[in-house]
Amino acid sequence: MILPLVEVHAVDHCNQNCRWCHNYAPFAPKKEYNAEDYFPWLDLLRDKGAQFGVISIMGGEPMLHSDITSFAYKIYHRYKVPLLITTNGFWLSEKSIDAHQLLWKMLFRIKISRYPVIERKLHGYDRMKELSSRIKKHNPKIQIEFPIKSSFNKLEFYSSPREVEMYCGNSECTALLPNGIMGRCGAGAYTHLAPESTFSQGFIESKHMLYDLKQFNLRTFTLWKKRYPLDACSFCNFGFPADRSDNWKVEKNYTPFNHEYETDYFVNTASHFLHNNDIDGACDILENVDKKNKQRSDVLNIEGIIAFKRGAPQDALNLFREALDKNETFLEAASNYNYVVHSLRHS
């Protein structure tokens, strides 16, 4: 039994708020998963004779995971199958690419989707390609793809069933949830993340979309995996070519970007550089933080560490104190503050 592609979420949330997101990321709460969450179900499938073609690490935006390299390594080490990551590339910079060099060594392919709003932030497609070529310095064999997202598949659901007019490639994806439920496509697997009003009753009540691995039976699983079209397909416009295409849009009542999530990424990556005593790398990464989030307590804490490492303990104290003023329960900033005070007393 071959499963060409098994999709797992590293996170549910995303820094972009795309309308018609097939995984409903704009509506998803901030949530990240451990690789171990998927092991019981991947182990079960493997032990029942399944062969994985590719394990696809998705989201949300998977690069928002606080330790995406560890997440990927645990899966790669356990199952020894090709790994694929799909990302919107908001993080692209020379320093960020170098920070994740161990991740690139494990991947056989990375898809960097070309969203117009991110292309503009990165100063165009040519610059994206130029930056991405740096990934190959860490893994010359990695495949890099740039799917165009300037035109987005318009995802809508019908109240009455229609006869499916074309094959939908989404049905080739097998989405695995941490609770052991599998879905035949993202649009059907992640309905729990979106408002109920998003869907028609016929799509929600599909008997073909989901499979509970806790009730695994090889005969029923094989039938489930091979069935097409699903009953749900009759209620989804992806099976109807005339209804598929529209320009990229932001989800209604949302901003194009969630800068809080992006700042989380930049703080985590700056911390990585500081752990390796690369102060300049940490500074370069923090330059990507937007003006509003420069005053976040975790950003101030990182800047305090940088100041101390650069021999400016008084500036460091001021930054740690400012971080604590914004979040008095921030234990790391409190510990750093006390460390600097102790150092000054004994210098």
From TrEMBL:
Provide the GO MF annotations for this entry.
catalytic activity; iron-sulfur cluster binding; metal ion binding
Entry keyword annotation includes Transcription regulation = no
Q: Please list the residue ranges annotated as the Radical SAM core domain.
A: 12-98
Q: Which cofactor does it need?
A: [4Fe-4S] cluster
Query: Is Iron-sulfur one of the keywords UniProt gives this record?
Result: yes
| Alphabetical UniProt keywords | Iron, Iron-sulfur, Metal-binding, S-adenosyl-L-methionine
Tell me what this protein is called.
Radical SAM protein
Biological classification of the source: Bacteria, Pseudomonadati, Thermodesulfobacteriota, Desulfovibrionia, Desulfovibrionales
